[in-house]
């Protein structure tokens, strides 16, 4: 049973890593669930500052980047010159994109910000800039999720073998 839990844990972490890049899967929560499976194996010990501490810290970061993944594209739109119309467009584009699969999630905020800016009366170049900011925000979100999943993988391997 211990080997099964260890294998299931590493599989969840691998799926979590892929889920960080594929918007359809919640990468960090899946990776954290894989790390949690180690709790029921004899591979970990409960020394202070060990597994239990890292479990809660990694949970915090997994939840944080999962939430930020939905906020950062909107903030990217604002940072790159988007108005409230562009931020609303990015938000609406993200929501619509959720129903269109991975491509919709990746490009929904971009097109939403772009269209929001065009509707508000901005020129095409300014609207593209806001859309670009939304896309960069999406890439930043993916990077944050990958870093958290990589940290989970590191601690998983550390507690499993050391």
Walkthrough of the structure:
The protein has 162 residues and is mainly α. The protein has one domain. Helices cover 81% and strands 0% of the residues. Helix 1 packs antiparallel against helix 2. The longest helix is centred in the C-terminal third of the chain and has 38 residues. The protein is elongated, with a radius of gyration of 19 Å. The chain starts with a helix and ends with a helix.
Q: Roughly how many Å apart are the termini? A: 20 Å
**Mean residue pLDDT:** 89
Taken together, the total number of domains comes to: 1
How many beta strands in the DSSP annotation? 0
Instruction: Work out the helix count.
Output: 6
Helix content: over 70%
Question: Main β-sheet, in a few words?
Answer: none
Structural Rg: 19 Å
Residue stretches low in confidence (pLDDT < 50, at least 5 long) are: none
Secondary-structure element sequence? HHHHHH
What overall geometry do the principal axes of the alpha carbons give? elongated
The secondary-structure class comes to mainly alpha
| Strand composition percent | under 5%
